Description:
Blueprint: E1 4-9, H1 15-26, E2 30-31, H2 34-43, H3 59-64, H4 85-102, E3 105-108, H5 112-115, E4 122-128, H6 131-141, H7 146-168, E5 180-183, H8 184-206
Amino acid sequence: MSYIITIARQYGSGGKTIGQRLATRLGIPCYNREIITMASEDSGINTLLFSDERLKPDLLTRLRNRYSGKGGKPVSPEQGGFTDENNLFEYQAKIIRELADKGPCVMIGRCADYVLRERKDVARVFVHAPEDFCLQEAMKVDSLPEREVKKKIAEVDAYRAAYYKRYTGQEWKDALNYDLSINSAVLGFDGTVEAIVQYLETRERFQP
């Protein structure tokens, strides 16, 4: 089975854990924040300048420098806009494409589904879950009062939706952007992993 699996996920749905377990199950690499580290090493730009699926707060700057959505090569240090948000995204996109060229892997977030949209060997997955399930799971890792965790879930999902909208021009939660949209609360994390594996196996049998 030779697929690059991209996973978009709601905060608290367990998408990151599912992605990691899926990679282990298939014996392939899993990339998440490693993409930022690699983009930083490739560009020489400090990792702190790379946004982790969120936009900088300067709305006017974001509107003025709106991403074209066409993709392309990142600019070099001697060119203008080297540390512009768009160029930082291009460096991440460059790393995503290079990792995909190396072979099967799991990529979590960072609009990887869109960056690799022209490849036929990509399986695009969206992991979601009801609010109460996301809260329960988030409470296991966030040492915050329940009210604050609820607020964090809403904020993180809003960040991810805005980030996805800017760099893809599409809605983050729109099922049409994905090959498989799955509720992790129904099957649990391991069950969701198995459901994705079964989808990949079925797809491999029927895909021309």
